[in-house]
Amino acid sequence: MREYVEKKIGKLERYFDGTEDVHVHVNLKVYNDGQGKIEVTIPMPHLLLRAEERHEDMYAAIDLVTDKLERQIRKHKTKVNRKLRDREKEAKLAAPVSIGASTAENEEEFEIVRTKHFSLKPMDSEEAILQMNLLGHNFFIFTNAETNRTNIVYRRKDGKYGLIEAN
Q1: What residue stretches are annotated with the Sigma 54 modulation/S30EA ribosomal protein C-terminal domain (predicted)?
Q2: Which of 23, 46, 145, 165 has the fewest Cβ atoms nearer than 10 Å?
Q3: Whole-number mean pLDDT of the chain?
Q4: Which of 3.30.1780.10, 3.30.10.20, 1.10.760.10, 3.30.160.100 would CATH assign to domain 2-109?
Q5: What CA–CA distance (Å, rounded) separates 32 from 50?
């Protein structure tokens, strides 16, 4: 299984110029229902690639997660190359670089369509889960009454709950 993972993930090296020293983190799990899960994280200097997949066949899960990572890499490379081409065009035109224009580009890519303001109430994680379910949301932000820190509870794909504790 390890050799198969190394072989599949190793094929992603063709997208890099070899200057990066990349460490791949792979986590394999098998659940009681017979499904396996693979999580792959590739931390890089200006990019974090992460994909996970559940499947009854671990080899199929490895193939699917490799495909996801490959799509992420291609998307990132395309975005970087597009920005480089745009910068080259601007340099050829000898036009001054406008900070407002680059800010507008970023806003188009990551447009915030709604902003909410609210007070965080002190509560425990159980009460936060109840509030989240009452609101019909997939996550809920609250102040942990015990630690007085901001926490987030969220609903996982398996139907269980997760807790994120901010430092």
Answers
A1: 107-163
A2: 46
A3: 82
A4: 3.30.160.100
A5: 24
